[in-house]
Structure formats: C-alpha cells, structure tokens
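Fill in residues.
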C-alpha cells in the first residue's frame, strides 16, 4: 500500500496511514513515551511502592530521577517539526531545582540540565542513553532536548533537519508499530 496525500477543499494535505487506511487531516508529527524505559523493568506488583510519577516527572526507588522533554527535529520543506515527547535522566539536584521552579517564569534562564536519553526513538538506532542537555521552557511546557552526541544520526538530523519525505516515513513506521 502506498502513502497518499489528498487535498481538501481548503488545500490542506491529508495523510493516509499505510497500515490501517485511516485518513488524518494532517500528518501526525508528535509522538511520545508515557514513561522512561526503566519504568517498564519494574514488576507491575511493585510499581505503586517503588515509583513516584507525575505527568512530566518520575522517580524510581527514590534514587533514579527522570523528566519528560521535547525533542524537535526540523522538517526542511514543511512548516512544522517532528516532535518526540520523551524522557531523560536528571540529577537529583536538578530534579529538585525543576520542582522548585515548576511555576516560576524565570526558570527559562536556568542552566541546561545534562541527562541520558531514556527511550528509543523509532527509526534511529541505539538512541538509549545518548548524551543530552535539556533547557527549560516557559511555564506549562516541558523542556527542550538537544542531543549532544555528535556521532549519532539523531544529532545530525536535529541539527540539520530532515525532508518531509523522511518525516512521512518515520510517521508511517511509528503508526504501524502502534497498530501491531
């Protein structure tokens, strides 16, 4: 089955999922993970006891700290970016600082936080534990993530952008995985 782009009456592009045939008004460009990968290693019977979780923050065993971040990959020939809402590690000190500054508009001036990527990014090989930095965003938005491992293809794509055709391939791949 091929990818079809349809034009609606108002000339917006439609996107058809190759897997199920669903037609989207716009290409899905935001994907994410509900939890850091480490979360899934905890037996279900122990989750409530060992994990503290809020929408964008997670602590496991009171010693492993994670926060949700936004990885954006520019699409060179399209007006929107490909986005991944994912998780990275964060030091306990920076985790506390993030909590203290949660509703502080001045947090945007905080120094970046170092961390290790805690999710695999579909279609990119070996993204687990890539070196990253996160910079605070305005209140109400998760931090922006930058890959700093300059030997990885994800770093290259984030720095240089990707084609719309590649973004379509990534979206199709992710949708197919979600439907299986």
């Amino acid at each position: 089955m091929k990818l079809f782009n349809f034009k609606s009456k108002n000339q917006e592009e439609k996107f058809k999922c190759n897997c199920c045939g669903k037609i989207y008004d716009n290409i899905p460009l935001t994907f994410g993970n509900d939890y850091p990968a480490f979360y899934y290693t905890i037996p279900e019977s122990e989750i409530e006891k060992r994990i503290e979780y809020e929408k964008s923050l997670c602590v496991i065993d009171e010693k492993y700290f994670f926060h949700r971040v936004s990885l954006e990959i520019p699409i060179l020939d399209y007006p929107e970016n490909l986005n991944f809402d994912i998780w990275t590690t964060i030091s306990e000190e920076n985790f506390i600082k993030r909590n203290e500054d949660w509703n502080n508009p001045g947090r945007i001036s905080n120094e970046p936080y170092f961390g290790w990527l805690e999710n695999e990014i579909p279609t990119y090989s070996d993204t687990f534990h890539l070196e990253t930095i996160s910079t605070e965003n305005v209140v109400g938005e998760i931090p922006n993530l930058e890959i700093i491992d300059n030997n990885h293809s994800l770093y290259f794509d984030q720095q240089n952008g990707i084609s719309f055709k590649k973004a379509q391939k990534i979206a199709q791949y992710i949708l197919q995985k979600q439907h299986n």
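The radius of gyration is 18 Å.
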